[in-house]
Each structure stands twice: as C-alpha cells, then as structure tokens.
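During the no-cost extension, the postdoctoral fellow (Dr. R.K.) reprocessed legacy sequence entries with the updated structure-token encoder. One reprocessed record is reproduced below for audit purposes.
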Amino acid sequence: MTQIQEDTKYIQENFSGDYLQLKCFLETNKLLIFFLTPKMGGKSTYIGFLKELFPDKFSVISTA
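Re-encoded structure tokens follow.
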C-alpha cells in the first residue's frame, strides 16, 4: 500500500462525516481550490489526497 493510499484510508476512517459531506457536494457541484503556499508547502500532497479520495473529480493546473 502506498503512502497516499494509507493516508486516504486514514482520512476515510477518521473524518468520515466530512468526507461524506464533500463527496455529496461534489456529486452535484463544482469546486475550485487554490493552494497558495511557498515551495515545499504540501500542495502536491493535498491534491494527491483529493485525487485518491475522489478520482476524476479534480484537475491540476500548476504555474511556476
């Protein structure tokens, strides 16, 4: 099991109410998220979690 898969499992088990609310919201709505952090701030980690939790719901647009 990869680290992202382990983290995703942890999120689903420990934050199930929030996870289910977001899942229901994404079924009928669009969501735009901006991650504005310095280099090495965890942007890729967070989008990795979201993509694992909700496949085909998130796209990544990155700028330098």
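Helices lie at 3-14, 16-28, 43-53. The two ends are 31 Å apart (CA to CA). The remaining legacy entries will be reprocessed before the final report is submitted.
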